[in-house]
Design a protein that fits this description.
Number of helices: 12
CATH architecture: 3-Layer(aba) Sandwich
Strand content: 5-15%
Bound molecules: S-adenosylmethionine
Order of helices and strands: HHHEHEHEHEHEHHHHEHE
Structural class: alpha/beta
Distance between the termini: 34 Å
Number of domains: 1
Strand order of the largest sheet: 3-2-1-4-5-7-6
CATH topology: Rossmann fold
Length: about 300
């Protein structure tokens, strides 16, 4: 294992620990899908939420939330996930087309249904890495819907604190061909050493023309804003204490590390994209989103 063992072993699947956060994001995507001004469409999201006993009572439509968009969890935080989904959908599709890339790796894929809902170029392969129990739940729900992926889909059940690079290459990932990588809502749950290993591994397995997007929280903000309405409402309404799930150790400077390895990087706040799309969260006082950054990195061709 890379880094200190966390309480979450993945054995709880989506029913608890970090795995449960995958259901929270799915519920947010379900709500986003049915908004009149939706930024992203995910028709599978609500099926995940309704299939798990722990989340079957959560809202999957704004109309089911008594205070609607004023609710910090199902309003503003869900909007954040909707915006993030849209921005990263666009990043992935633009990257595969611009780089003539046919390999996509979703790190901590959770209940991301992009393999099923985005229009991938022919011959594209989507590798999905997450824990065994999360991927088993996903398989069961999608199987029940007879959902058909729009690209070849290769689930890789493995802990990202283990030697996942070997599992990925054994599953057919080609290090000689360009790739697009995504770590959405993942890195702040990993120990420092596992994040460093992840970034080093993406660098090692990526040829010129490859791209990576990931989300981080600035270290100074990671455990700040403890009483932010986003954190307190998530804890009180659905029992997820995000602050206790985040790895509390010092964070590596992953964007800086990639830049030093020759990648070109750009770092954005989510609010940059709110302004671009005309909807999404804007800065507030005491804001759990203040330290979130979305990083986009490209490895130049030789
Ligand atoms: C907040 S969810 C995000 C899921 C997905 N990327 C999305 O945005 O919908 C975090 C995911 O990371 C996965 N995860 C966290 N730590 C992990 C680890 N050590 N190994 C594998 N997966 C992990 C969890 O199981 C969960 O599915």
């Amino acid at each position: 294992m890379v880094g200190t063992a966390q309480p979450n072993t993945g054995a709880e699947g989506v029913e608890g620990g970090i795995g449960l956060t995958a259901l929270m994001v799915a519920a947010a995507r379900a709500i986003e899908t049915h908004r009149h001004d939706s930024l992203a469409q995910d028709v599978y999201a609500e099926h995940f939420v309704l299939a798990a006993p722990v989340s079957a009572g959560w809202p999957v439509r704004t109309q089911q939330v008594p205070d609607g968009d004023a609710n910090p969890l199902w309003g503003r935080f869900a909007r954040y996930f909707g915006l993030r989904t849209r921005v990263l959908d666009d990043f992935l599709l633009q990257s595969v087309h611009a780089g003539n890339t046919r390999q996509v790796v979703l790190l901590g894929a959770g209940l991301d249904s992009r393999a099923f809902r985005l229009d991938w170029p022919p011959d594209c392969v989507i590798f999905e890495i997450d824990t065994e129990h999360v991927l088993a739940f996903k398989h069961k729900v999608l199987g029940g819907l007879s959902a058909t992926p729009k690209a070849a889909r290769v689930p890789i059940p493995i802990d990202l604190r283990a030697d996942w690079a070997r599992a990925l290459t054994a599953a057919g990932f080609d290090t000689a061909a360009p790739s697009v990588w995504l770590a959405e809502g993942l890195l702040f749950y990993l120990p420092n050493a596992a994040e460093t290993y992840l970034i080093d591994t993406v660098d090692r397995l990526s040829t010129g023309g490859s791209a990576l997007a990931f989300e981080v929280k600035l270290e100074k903000d990671l455990l700040e804003y403890r009483d932010s309405p986003i954190y307190t409402s998530t804890k009180h309404q659905i029992g997820i204490d995000l602050l206790s799930l985040f790895d509390g150790g010092p964070r590596p400077d992953s964007a800086g590390d990639l830049a030093s390895k020759g990648w070109s990087t750009s770092v954005h706040t989510p609010f940059d994209f709110t302004r671009q799309h005309g909807c999404g969260p804007l800065p507030e006082q005491n804001d759990a989103l203040a330290g979130n950054r979305w990083v986009f990195a490209n490895r130049p061709r030789p």
